[in-house]
Structures are given as structure tokens and as C-alpha cells.
């Protein structure tokens, strides 16, 4: 029985997926040559390919540029007060709204910069915030 189970498990986990895995590996190595990736540990490679899973939100605030706003404007102070009170998942949802992804590149938040701009609309009370994901700009009405 043990031999049968060993052979069955080996078939299911090795032989039955060998051809599809070889095809996948060939395609992966064509785009990502193994020589180049060997310098990374598995954890570093995961961060490089998938981005940072955790963030220093105060560093994000520090790196923001403002257009038609200053850091001391009441709208900006209110925004950051509300933002820092959000749970982690809502903050990541904000990243999706802003950039299209809930992760930041493997370089982390240090080089990640976005802009908060005043859309300068006639009646800001009738407008909602919106974002330009290409420009990493949050348009925040006053």
C-alpha cells in the first residue's frame, strides 16, 4: 500500500503536471532569465515582483506634493486626519483608487510620490474627489 500511495502521490504532484510546468518555466525564463534572478532571496524576489505588502503611511504623507494647496491648508489637514484614522484595508483601497494597485513597487514608499491638487471647480461642495492614476494625482475639492 505504501508503495502504491507513494507512486500515486508522485504521479499527481510530479508527472501529471510536468509538461505544463515545463512550458510555464520555459516562458518564465524567456522573460526573466534565471541568471539575473539568482542574486535575490525568494522573499526579495516576491517583493520585487509583487511590491511591498506593508507601508509606513506617515512616509507617504511626507512625500506628497501639493498643487494649489499647502500642507497647512485645512482641507489637507482634514484629509490626513481622516486618512490616518482609516483601517489598513481602507488605506490600501485608497492606493487602488490613486494608483490602480494596492501595492507599491519593491523600492517601497521612499521614492513613491503622488500629488494632491485642487481641481479649482466653481462649486466644490457638489464635487467628489477623483484621481488620475497615470499622473498619481488626487484631485481634492476644497
Automatic annotation (TrEMBL):
GO biological process terms on file: protein polyubiquitination
Q: Which UniProt keywords apply?
A: Ligase, Transferase, Ubl conjugation pathway
Q: Which GO terms describe its molecular function?
A: ligase activity; ubiquitin protein ligase activity
Q: Which residues form the HECT domain?
A: 1-142
Top-level EC class: transferase
Is Nucleus among the key words of this record? no
The record ties this protein, via InterPro entries, to: E3A/B/C-like, HECT_dom, Hect_E3_ubiquitin_ligase
Q: Which organism is it from?
A: Quiscalus mexicanus
Name this protein carries in UniProt: HECT-type E3 ubiquitin transferase
The EC code for this enzyme is 2.3.2.26
The record's section on PANTHER family has: HECT-TYPE E3 UBIQUITIN TRANSFERASE, UBIQUITIN-PROTEIN LIGASE E3C
